[in-house]
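Input structure tokens:
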């Protein structure tokens, strides 16, 4: 049974305004489902189910209270990034009709990840037992897939506390209609969403960063519109002195500075000399942007850099000093220290999830529809709605001829005013007078709302503390690496009788991880369409890395 259209319009209006209209807090409730303790935060709301600050606060609380010290950064010298998936359950249609003024909503963190690192392609393994990408967003998403696998097992075992209910096709399931998922990230995603215009007030002079200055530079953070009075004075003083601070690029490629109310214009392609035949220049619209800013409007003087590199063999950055340094809308891979990675940027992966869902190919065997995110909330950091929308929604908005059930989503993009305590910016402010060099935390934490071993701490793609001699052992594997998630999926398949299996898994000889992924025909068709129409040049892992059992 689906909720009424008027109800969803009311909810959507409140969510888009990032407000909880008539919100009234009630006490948090400790619950158990299948032996998993978790904290539900109920709320009574009229018009909106939640606000961005409520999502951020819930995630930060979970980080502080549910994750151990192991794997967290040393705040004297380290920082990290945080991401999570929050399940939002609203009242059923019957409850809404019975009491339309009191909308009961519960929010629960079901997956969480921290991390800033990626492994280089030379460290990739054909056994599927290493985490290639340990950026927080990816760790959270893989932790979410682990949660979904457990929920599917609950459904197949006919346990009522599952989020899934039977679909209309044999062996297929779908989400309960009152359940949605919100993705939270403490920072803007690396890649295209971090390429934003750098502005200065028209009455201030600023020396743009030159090409030489920008080499090896991380995306810088500053947001004049969001600064307090004291910070604004400091910012203006810096601008008047023509000073622009430089940051050394780490291999994480995060952290951007995003002035509000400025739109990065799409670049136009330009063929140049033989030394760089696939570069581009910024568009005429960008070149004339300063003429159109108007009196007292911020003036675009440069663009902030991203550490993510354009995919090999495709269009590249022009690297022209100033506005023309980057091209926008391009696919990018995460940077590595000397050894190029094969991991696409978080912006690119979020754009993909917005069309294909977060469940992946394996779980699609059991699902009638993909599991989409209803909203993405970013913590307090420099942020631009326009740039986020371009990177995550608009690049794939035009896709057509997708298989039934797949559809580009109009995901809500919101920002919280609450900052993550272990973000780079927060640590830098605390350590202002310290001479200690700040570095990204080498560990990544994975947490899933599952009953067995919900917590996982890794470093360099393996369980933290793994010695070289132990690499390859079962004990060295993260619970969210490919082979572990595959084995969890296989256990799910064997727990279901042949007559109750979906058609794609019934009476088939499937052995390897690759076999099972390819057998999810509708997902693979959707992915093929998406690649051909929007994400050309996507770096795919060679099949030799997927033929494990």
């Amino acid at each position: 049974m689906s909720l009424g259209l008027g109800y969803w319009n009311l909810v959507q209006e409140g969510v888009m305004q990032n407000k909880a209209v008539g919100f009234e807090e009630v006490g948090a409730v400790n619950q158990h489902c299948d032996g998993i303790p978790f904290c539900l935060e109920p709320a009574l709301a009229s018009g909106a189910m939640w606000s961005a600050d409520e999502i951020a606060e819930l995630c930060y609380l979970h980080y502080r209270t549910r994750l151990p010290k192991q794997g967290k950064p040393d705040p004297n010298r380290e920082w990290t990034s945080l991401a999570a998936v929050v399940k939002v359950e609203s009242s059923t249609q019957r409850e809404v009709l019975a009491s339309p003024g009191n909308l009961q909503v519960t929010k629960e963190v079901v997956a969480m990840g921290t991390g800033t690192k990626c492994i280089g392609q030379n460290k990739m393994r054909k056994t599927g037992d290493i985490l290639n990408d340990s950026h927080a967003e990816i760790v959270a998403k893989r932790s979410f897939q682990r949660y979904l696998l457990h929920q599917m097992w609950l459904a197949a075992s006919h346990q009522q506390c599952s989020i899934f209910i039977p679909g209309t096709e044999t062996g297929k399931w779908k989400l309960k209609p009152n359940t949605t998922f919100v993705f939270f990230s403490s920072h803007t995603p690396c890649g295209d969403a971090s390429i934003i215009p750098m502005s200065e007030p028209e009455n201030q002079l600023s020396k743009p960063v030159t090409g030489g200055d920008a080499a090896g530079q991380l995306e810088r953070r500053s947001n004049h519109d969001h600064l307090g009075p004291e910070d604004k004075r400091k910012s203006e003083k810096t601008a008047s002195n023509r000073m622009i601070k430089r940051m050394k690029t780490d291999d994480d490629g995060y952290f951007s500075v995003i002035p509000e109310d400025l739109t990065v214009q799409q670049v136009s392609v330009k063929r140049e000399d033989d030394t760089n035949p696939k570069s581009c220049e910024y568009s005429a619209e960008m070149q004339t942007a300063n003429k159109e800013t108007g009196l007292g409007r911020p003036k675009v003087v440069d663009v902030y850099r991203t550490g993510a590199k354009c995919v090999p063999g495709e269009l590249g950055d022009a690297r022209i000093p100033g506005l023309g340094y980057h091209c926008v809308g391009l696919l990018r891979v995460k940077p590595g220290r000397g050894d190029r990675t094969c991991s696409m940027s978080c912006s690119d992966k979020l754009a993909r999830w917005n069309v294909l869902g977060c469940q992946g190919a394996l779980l699609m065997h059991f699902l009638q529809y993909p599991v989409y995110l209803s909203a993405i909330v970013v913590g307090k950091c420099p942020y631009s709605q326009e740039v986020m929308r371009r990177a995550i929604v608009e690049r794939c908005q035009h896709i057509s001829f997708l298989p039934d059930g797949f559809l580009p989503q109009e995901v809500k993009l919101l920002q919280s005013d609450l900052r993550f305590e272990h973000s780079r910016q927060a640590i830098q402010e605390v350590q202002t007078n310290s001479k200690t060099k700040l570095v990204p935390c080498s560990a990544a934490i994975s947490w899933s709302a599952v009953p067995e071993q919900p917590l996982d701490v890794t470093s360099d793609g393996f369980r933290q503390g793994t010695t070289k001699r132990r690499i390859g052992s079962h004990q060295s594997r993260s619970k969210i690496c490919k082979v572990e998630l595959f084995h969890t999926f296989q256990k799910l398949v064997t727990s279901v009788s042949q007559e109750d299996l979906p058609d794609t898994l019934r009476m088939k000889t499937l052995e390897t991880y690759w076999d099972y992924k390819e057998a999810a025909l509708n997902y693979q068709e959707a992915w093929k369409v998406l690649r051909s129409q929007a994400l050309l040049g996507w770096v795919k892992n060679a099949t030799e890395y997927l033929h494990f059992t």
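The radius of gyration is 23 Å. Confidence is low (pLDDT under 50) at residues 1-30, 42-47, 201-279, 283-289.
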